[in-house]
Design goal:
The protein is mainly alpha-helical and 552 residues long. The chain folds into 4 domains: 177 residues, HUPs (Rossmann fold, 3-Layer(aba) Sandwich), CATH 3.40.50; 90 residues, Glutamyl-trna Synthetase, Domain 2 (Glutamyl-tRNA Synthetase, domain 2), CATH 1.10.1160.10; 63 residues, no CATH class; 108 residues, Arc Repressor Mutant, subunit A (Orthogonal Bundle). It has 23 helices and 14 strands. A 3-stranded antiparallel sheet has the order 3-4-7. A hairpin with a 3-residue loop joins strand 5 and strand 6. The model has no long low-confidence stretch (mean pLDDT 94). The structure holds glutamic acid. Glutamic acid binds next to loops.
Amino acid sequence: MTNEERIELAELLFPNIKHDRAYYEEKYPERDLPEGAMVTRFGPSPTGFVHMGSLFGSFIDMTYARQTNGVFYLRIEDTDQKRTVENGVEGIFTDLDSFDICPDESTKVGGEYGPYIQSQRVDIYQTYVKDLIVQGKAYPCFMTEKELESIREEQEINKVRTGVYGIYAADRDLSIEEIKEKIANGDEYVIRLKSPGNPNNIIEFTDLIKGKMKFPESDEDFVLLKKDGVPTYHFAHAIDDHLMHTTHVIRADEWVSSIPKHVQLFNVLGFKLPNFCHHAPLTKKDEETGTIRKLSKRKDPEAAVSYYEEVGIPNDAVKLYLATILNSNFEEWYLENPDKSYQDFTFTFNKMAVGGTSFDLDKLTNISKTYFSRKSGEEVYEETLSWALKHDKEYAELLLANKEDMIKFLSIEKDGPRPRKDISKYSEVKEEFSYAIDSMFEEEDYSKFDGDKTYDTNLVLDYVNNYLDLDVDNEAWFNKVKEFAEANGYAASPKDYKKNPDDYKGHVGDICEAIRVMITGRLKSPDLFSIMKILGKDKILKRVELYNKKFN
Ligand code: GLU
């Protein structure tokens, strides 16, 4: 085709495209950012929700952009109608908002490089395709589904690669007359890239996470625009990441195999190649088969980001966990720096997992315990209250009515280098601190803690009435318990008891256990003396009597 014919063809195919490439290149100039600033993007399809794997992706995008004073933007990728659901965009914003993943630019907050939704960028894509047609680097292909099917069958029989390339690219060299005739005929067409690649050439490529890779060049005339004029993922990716000046394409590693196509496309379009960072999928051990598989929306409730809010795991704890799986050296740093936030850590691509990233709910729970342990009693109270107001109204009422004591209970064993680590979810505050609220305590069935074992109420009553002094320090209090133990035939320490078990009814620990069960309804609790001090003598006596009524 001559130059004139190509221009004629471009006009014939895109009569409504009036701008040229230069118009968009000027409209979206280089970003004015400090040296080293990363421009990252999250590109979800509007499926209505965010999968944990995607949340992880957006967390990576945001983290790197923030730590380099760059830009993190959200681009809705709605070129695939099959993946689009009604109100799908809204659902994505809701999920991201709930984790404070706040893009600097998006359909919601705007920005200079929009529109941030691909369906509104069709003119832009078509402008660049029109230009490729003029340059002879793309062409309309009229092959029908049937024809494509038949070449696939032929390729399978001949045991060669499937696809439209080389001799199989039947419409590559149609004349302008042939094309005009087909169009006049109403034949449908897609626009394909006229691939300049040769698979005998090997290209080298460096991924910032996966390292150096080698691929044969792509010679596939892959589709740029579909029949309806909407771009494929490949084409939209090249145009958008170029015009929006993405410096780091951070995406799931399912796209690695498309790299030869993307490298070629950027070259053909004359675009600078961004950095590519393909991150591993989140995986877990399948409970039934024991094999490692991808975290699945269908099988794993924890794959939905709404799960954490429902069960009461704080968003910040989830983010701490994401930071932990993002960089292998993060956790150690975090444990060594108890007063720092994850945002103070410098994340790097070379500490990211290359294979699968194991998503371990037990580990997340443990990190959440660390998160809670670093919060003051008052903070735990406030956060639990705001969670309960949404998810457990009845408990929220109780928290409001018992605020002062509740904060005191939640503050036990919070000082010192090893703060208490027992809560991983807001919902657990209710279970673990049931004794902190009288009405809940009274309803509790604490026989479940000790099977057949019952404790001697008279012994505890005697202690409370005659030995208990709450206005002393912990040591003096414990000395008194020991004194009481000895006066009643119990050893003052487990060690003494072990030496001569026949001489004693038990030891001081047994007495503490009896008190603990009677006043907290459980065998384990935070520091007993602190609990006793908050309850006060009257409540302690009431609780011992209640126990007596229930069990003796
Ligand atoms: N829309 C693509 C997806 O959902 C985004 C991939 C990318 O980040 O480039 O997989």
